[in-house]
Input
Amino acid sequence: MTDLRIERIGVDGDGVALLDGKPVYIPFVLPGELVSVRLEGKRGLGQAGDGTVLEPSPDRAAPPCPHFGPCGGCALQHWADDKYAEWKSNQVRDALRRAGFADATPAPLVRTAPGTRRRVELAAKRMPSGVALGLHARNESTVVDLADCAVLHPTLVGLVAALRDLLRSIDGLRKEGSVLVNLLTSGPDILLRLDGPLSMPDRVKIAAFADRWGAPRICTSRGTGVPETAAQLRPARTMLTGLEVVPPPGAFLQASATGEAAIIAAMIAGLPKKLSRKSRIAELYAGCGSLTFPLSEVGRVDAFEGEIGASTALRNAANVSGLSGRIAVMQRDLTRQPLAAKELAPYAAVVLDPPHGGAAVQIEQIAAAGVKRVVYVSCNPSTLGRDAAVLKTAGYALLSTTPIDQFLWSARIESVSVFEKVK
Output
């Protein structure tokens, strides 16, 4: 065992100490704490270890969830709220400053409340005693059997035990799988990813579950294969900016209503003030339309989305809502086929909401096009910083950045950053 003083919290939520000038990463500790560390293995350029706190920080708080520690979902429930919020905001600030925007100063952090997350993916594993259903332990394949959760909407928490019983009773789960639930306007939309075929009794049980628990649709797939509908009682519908969308099974939706509203508000505020309803806006990585519909109220939107189910849902919703004249939907994989600079040049603004890996290929073309205004929605400060550096080199200034904490107590942070071409 080695005694180390924690210097800071790293980007993954672990404490960082220095040993012979190299970082050691220790979970569930806080800055300033003296920790007795058992070194375990390599991580990046440093080492990882578990620690026993010898001198606790005055900023240490009681975690609100009984699963905190073993469960890999939350990393920072043990930190006083004001320090935690400051750290979250600083993740965005520091990423942008490293990208070259030395004066980056985020707007006040937008917070989401506990018990409001409306989307979850749970791991399932058949055990000798039954089925474990929950989140993976930190950096392990072990599934922490979930009994409660301080982050999830109560409706989703209330489903966990029933889903565990369902999975225990069906033949389609042989060893392991997962359950993805989106809490839609019409109820919990469920995708079961299984490792075996469904039997007829399985289908009967799934239909009975949907009826009992108010699930409009339950789909299944073999691993990551194409989902098939196992039970459908009514359309799986959700409202996005007051418009009805029928998302595909397992669709990506914003994690919380509060977070979605904050993203929309920061995005609209970041658009050029002189836009007319005829101005053209390119929206990249559009998904099912969370940002498309509010954008269509201020300009004409060309929405690009690579996933066929999401692009189809967005197109259908635009057509049914009478917005086909204001929203054009194009299915296009922007990683393999990014929009070229000459395609982007005519737009008054570009809005992009890329996945966790960012938009490394696409951002080069945006920068080369010299689009006057770029609004970048990010869920990963590291890739935001990487892509923002490309814009900095191309002569863009940072007008604003808004951090949004809709991944409560995790190391992740959402943000909306607005860039303007000035050179």
